Amino acid sequence: MIKLVRMLFIFVGFLGLASNSFAADVTMRISIQLPMKSHLGQNLLLFKNDVEKKSNGEIEVQIYDSAQLYKDKEVPAAVGSGSIESGVASLTRYVGDIPAVDLFYQPFLLNSEEKVRKAVAKGSSIRGPIDKAIEGTGSTVLWWQAYGSAIMLSKGEAIKNPSDMKGKKVRVFGKTLGAFVKASGGAATLISGSEQYLAYQRGTVDVGMTGVSGVKSRKLFEVMDTITKTNHGDIEFLVVANTKWFNSLSSKHRDIIMSSAMMAEKDVRDKVSAIEADAYALAKSKGMKIVTPSASDIDAFKKASKPVYDAYKKNAGKLGEQLLEAASKL
């Protein structure tokens, strides 16, 4: 009996050594404010599986979704300081350090998929300088995640003209979008994406601003009944890694991460149109009304937006001027 127990201990010890021998050399935690079922969450899962496969398990990717660790607005500082290895944040969350990033939220500027693809191409005259500027925050951009065009959510009536915005409290997710709301006659309130549902449910705001895929992933059809397809901005998220952590990795591991990042970026960019179409179909099936503003309504929004462009030119400095010029050539 004693001999059997001794053998059992030896066997358990062997299992422990075996499990340790298969432990990952690198752990990469990623924080995202969206749920895993969102298309950005699924894009991270694609990245995770590819990295772990290519590295033969040497790199373990852990995804913390639904703002378990950090809200969207907290990610840039958390990653830049090294509190977490990696995170996903809306591009506009970098506006405090780099005002020029809000080029993507200048109303109706990047208003076609062709323009957006040119703007976000790695090393382009727009993305290249932005990626470089973000390095100054202590983070390295791994890839950009396409989220789609900005829309308006409301109850009862559509927000298809600046006159419909007057006197309304509007949820925004960036400073420039807030300026757009103000210029159109509304009052902007900055609310994190993970807090949208409750804000609409409680009537904290009258109007929402988001991407249509969020209507599906966050079940916003339960608290809002109308979508207005203004498509007034291009919503981009960034997956960033702490630069010191990333540079401390072996060249082999860095290459694997960047290779998987490029694969994930292409995948989400190629799918975003279909993802938006699917979200619109679901919203309609849930009883939401889908409204497309007329050309004259869009012109009214554009006319109202002049102060937004003026403020951008004033606040975004030489980089903003450079990016606006590049955008005009797309």
In short:
By secondary structure, the chain is an alpha/beta fold. It has helices at 2-21, 39-54, 75-81, 113-120, 127-135, 162-165, 175-183, 196-202, 212-217, 243-248, 251-285, 295-304, 306-315, 317-328; strands at 26-31, 59-64, 86-90, 139-154, 169-172, 187-190, 208-211, 226-228, 234-242, 289-291.
Please describe the topology of this protein.
Blueprint: H1 2-21, E1 26-31, H2 39-54, E2 59-64, H3 75-81, E3 86-90, H4 113-120, H5 127-135, E4 139-154, H6 162-165, E5 169-172, H7 175-183, E6 187-190, H8 196-202, E7 208-211, H9 212-217, E8 226-228, E9 234-242, H10 243-248, H11 251-285, E10 289-291, H12 295-304, H13 306-315, H14 317-328
Parallel strand pairs: 1-2, 1-3, 5-6, 8-10
Antiparallel strand pairs: 3-9, 4-7, 4-8, 4-9
Helix pairs in contact: 2-11, 7-13
What does this structure look like?
The chain is an alpha/beta fold. It has a single domain, classed as Bacterial extracellular solute-binding protein, family 7 (D-Maltodextrin-Binding Protein, domain 2). Strands 1, 2, 3, 4, 7, 8, 9 and 10 form an eight-stranded mixed beta sheet that branches. It is globular and about 60 Å long. The termini are far apart. The relative contact order is 0.17.
Task: Estimate percent helicity.
Answer: 40-55%
Radius of gyration over C-alpha positions, nearest whole angstrom:
22 Å
Q: Outline, from the CA principal axes?
A: globular
- Give, in order, the helices and strands: HEHEHEHHEHEHEHEHEEHHEHHH
Strand content: 15-25%
And the CATH topology? D-Maltodextrin-Binding Protein, domain 2
Structural class: alpha/beta
* Mean pLDDT figure: 92
**In CATH's first tier, which class applies?**
Alpha Beta
Terminal-residue CA separation: 80 Å
- Kindly give the count of domains: 1
Oligomer: single chain
- The parts where pLDDT drops under 50 for at least 5 residues are 2-21
- The CATH architecture name reads 3-Layer(aba) Sandwich
